[in-house]
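Consider the following assembly input.
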Amino acid sequence: MSANGMGGVSRRGLLAGGIGAAALAAAGCDVGGGGADSGGAGTGEGKITALFMQQAGYSEDDIRGMTADFAKAYPKITVEPTFVAYEALHDKIVAAAPAGTYDVVLIDVIWPAEFGSKKIVTDVTAQFPAAWKTDMLGGALTTAEYQNKFYGVPWILDTKYLFHNTEMLGKAGVDAASLSTWDGVLAAATKIKNAGLVKYPLIWSWKQAEALICDYTQLLGAFGGKFLSDDFQSTAFATGGGLDALKWMKKTLDDGLTNPNSMESLEEDVRKTFSEGGAAMALNWTYMFNAANDPAQSKVAGKVDVLPTPAGSAGAPGVNGSMALCVTGGSKNQKAAWTYISYLTGADVQNKYAKSSLPCWAKSYDDPAVLSVAPKMVPAAKKELANLISRPEVPRYNEISQILQAEVQNALLGRKTPEKALADAADQAKSLLS
Amino acid sequence: MTGFLRRGRVALLAYALLVPAALVVFGVVLYPAGRALVISFFDVDSPFPGAYPFVGLKNYADILTGARFWTAAQHTLYFTLASTTLEVVLGLGLAHLLAAPIRLRWLFRGIVILPWALPTIVNGAMWRWILNAEYGALNALLTQLHVQGDYRSWLGSDPFVALNMVVVADVWKNTSLVAFFLLAGLQTIPGDLLEAARIDGAGPVRAFLRVTLPMLRPTLAAVLVLRIIEAFKVFDIIYVMTGGGPAGGTQTVTFLTYLQAFSAERFSYGAALAYVTVVAILLLALIYLRLLRQQELSVS
Amino acid sequence: MKKNRHVGAHIGALVASILILAPFAWLVITSIAGQTDLLARPLRWWPEHVTLSRYREIFSGAAGGVAAQFRSAMVNSLVVAAGTVLISVSVGIFGGYALARLRFPLRRVTLLSFLVTYMLPPIVLIIPLYLLMARFGLLDTKLGLVIVYCSLATPFALWTMNNFFGSLPVELEEAARVDGCSRLGALIRIILPLARPGIVATVLFVFLLCWDEFLYALIFTSTSDAKTIPVAIAEFTGRNAVDFGLIAAGGVLAAVPPVLLAVVLQRHLLSGLTAGALKA
C-alpha cells in the first residue's frame, strides 16, 4: 500500500463527493434520508407498537399488566410493548422516527422541545381535555409542554428528594426539622462529620451525565438562579443563583462534607453508598425510599427517612424528572395510539400501580389507597411536586447540557474557578439558543 | 498479444472473486455511507427526509476551528497510540508464548482468549467495578499491600488518569486479538529459516530481529492497521466506563460524533466528523506503515 | 540452552495467565458473592456468603423476564455470529486471494475502498440503515443483523486474508500450477491448507466481532426474536438493579461459547509451513 495510493484516493474521493453534493444541491434533492413514510390518524383500531424503558417507575411486568387490561377494554386494538434501557431511549426514538416503527413512545421531560419542533412526536393539544389541565399536579402538567402546546401526556412523575439516615442524625444530635434548608443541611453535615460518624456526610450524582445537571438544577432553583433569560435568547446561569449553586457545590467538596467520589457517581452509586451507611444525606429520586429501606439490599433499612428538598435563599423547587407518553409523528395509527395513552395515564390505572410510581393526578394524593402504599413518601411528594423547576426547554437542550456537564465538572475538580467555568459554558452555549 | 489476453483473463478472475465481497459490503454500506457524505455538505438537523440548506464545507470548517474537536482529537490520538503500541509489544511476547511448546498449551490458549471473548460492555463494566472508588478491588489491593494509604478515585478525579484507565481496559481485552493474529503470522515463517539462523550462531534475540520480525512484518502491519482503525473509533468502552468524563477528559472523536449526531441530532456535523475520522485514520495508518518499513531497512 | 528457554516460556506463560486471569477471576467471584461481601471494606477476597442465585435466576427465570431474554439472546448471538462467519470468511477468502495474488487494475483502490467502509464510525450510518432495514422488513430479525454484520466483518476478513495469502511463498502455488492445477485448484488444494492459521484467526475475529457488537444490535433489535448478548446484558442494569453481580454472571456466561470455540480451534492455529509443507 503506497503513500500515493492512499492519499490520492482519499483526495479524489472527497473531491468527487463534493461535486456530487453540489450537483444534488443544485437539483434541490431531498437529502434527509429519502423514502420515509408519513404518519396518519388511522382507523383507531388494529395494531400499535409502544416503546417503554426498563428503569425506575413502572416495571416491565406492570406495563404488561396494564396492557393486558387495556386489551380487555379495547379488544379491537392490539398493543405490542417493547422495552429499552433509559440510556438508549432517546437514540432509539430518533433512529426509528422516519420508519414509523413505534406508535407510542415514552419521552423524558427534557425532550419535548427537541422532539416537538422536529415533529418526531405529534402535537396533542387539540385532544388534551381541558379538565386534565386542572386535575393534574401543576408540576406534572408541564412535562410534555413546549411553547404552550402539549406533545404528550405525563405518566411517570418524579423529582429529587432529600433522604437521610435517621440513626446518624440522632447520634449527632441533629433535628431532622433543621434539614428544611440547605444551610441546615450543611450545619448537620458538619456536626455529623465532627462526630466521626461518617467521613463524608453527603453523596451526590455528579458524574459527567444528565444526573449532574439534575442536582445542579435543583440547587440553582433553590438559590434563585435561572438557566435562560426570559426571552430564551441568552443564558443566565453564569451569574446570580446559577453561580451561587456551583460555588456552594464546590465549597461542600472543599470542606470535606461531600464525598469526592460523587464526581464518578450516578443515582445508583448514590443509593449504593447511602445504603451501605457511607453517607448521612443524599438527594435522589423516589425509588430510593423503598430500595434503601429494603433489608435485602440495604444495611440502613428502617433508618431511612425522606423530606422535601431543602430551601435555599429563594425557595425549594424540585427538579422536574418526569416522563410522558407521546404519539409519534410517523405512526400510521395515531388514533389508536392516543386511546392507549389515555388509558395508561388515567387516574384509575395510575392509582392501581401507585406503589411503582406516584400518580400525576392531584386527587390521588388524598386517596387512602394511594397513601397506604407509601405513607412516608406521599406527604413529601405532595409538597414538592407542586413546585417543580424545569431544565431549559429549548430544542438544543442536549448540547447545552453536555457543555454544562463538562464545565461544572471543571469547576468541581478545581481546574477552573466557578466563575470561569460557567462563563465558558455560557460562551459555548450562546450560539445554540438562536 | 497473448500476454495482454492473459492479463485480461487474470483481471476478470480477480473481479469475479471480489464480486461476492463487494456485494456483501457495498450492498449494505454504499447508500448509508454515500448519504452521510452528501449530508455532510448540508445542514440536516432531523431524521426525516426533506429539503435542507446546502452549506458547502461549513461543517468541516466548524469542526476544524472548534475547540471541542481538537480536545477530543488529542484524547483519541493519545488513546490510539498508547493502546496500539502496548497491544503490539505485549501481543508479540504473548504470540511467542502461545507458539512455544509448553505444557497444557490448549489451556493457556483458552486463557489468553478469555479477555477477547468478554463482550466490551462487560469488560467496561468490569473495569469500572474494579476501579470503583468506594468498593473497587484495585483500591482494596493497593491499600492492603500498603502501596497507597487510602482509597482513591480512578475514574472521577483526574481526567488523564481516567483516560489511562480506559487504555488499560482496552489493552487487557485487545492484546489477545493481536497475539492470536501474530501467532497465525508466526506459523507462516518456515522453521528452517530460524534453524539456519541458529546454526549461524545467532542468539534468540538476534534471530528474532533478523528473521522473525522481518518475516512477521506483513502480519504486524495488517494487525496494526486494524487496531488503529478500531482504537481510533473507540466508543463502546468509553460509553460504559466514563461517559466521556471527568470534565470531558475521556471524550474521543467518535464519542463526540455520537453526541453530535445522535443526542444533538446534528446529523450533518456528525457525518462530517465521520469523514474527518476516516481521513485521520488513513493518515495515521500511513505513518505507522512508513515507520514499519523504515524499521525493516534498519534491521536488515 | 533449549531447556532454559522452555523454563522461560513456562514462567512467561504463568505470568501472562495471572495478569489475564486476575480481573476475570474477580468477575467470577463477584458473580457468586453475596451483595454484602461485594461492598465490604476492607474487602474480603473470598466471599463469606457464596451464592449461585444469579446463575439460577438466569437459567430458571420466568419466561418474558430479563433472564429468559438472556437465554434467547445467547441463541440469537450464536446464530448471528455463525451466519456471519460463514459468509464473511468465505467471501473474504476469495477476495483476499484475488487481492494478494492477482494483478489487476485498481487493485489498491479496491482494497482501500473496502477498508474505508471499515473506518467509518457506525454511528453515522445507523439512521439510513434503519430506513433500509425497515423497508425490507429486516428490523428485529437475525437475518438483518447477519446482513449488517457481514458488511462490517468482510472488509476485515479481506484485509487479513490478503495479508496471510501474501505472506505465503509464491513458489508453492507456482509449483502446483506447473503440475497442472488451475488457479482456483491451487487456491483450494495448496493455499487454503497452508493459510489455515490465518483463516482460523479470521474466523475467531469475525465471530467475536459479532459477539461483541453493541450499537447496531441495540438500535436494530427490540424483542427476544433478535436481541443479542450485549444488549441483554446491558438490560441487566435496568430496573434499579445495582447488583453488579448479575452483570458479572451474564459476562461470565457470555464468555463461555467463544472460549470453547477457541479451545476447539486452537489446534488449527498451528500448522502450515512449520509442519514441513515446503517438502510437499
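The first strand of chain A starts at residue 46 and ends at 53. Ask yourself how this observation constrains the way the partners meet.
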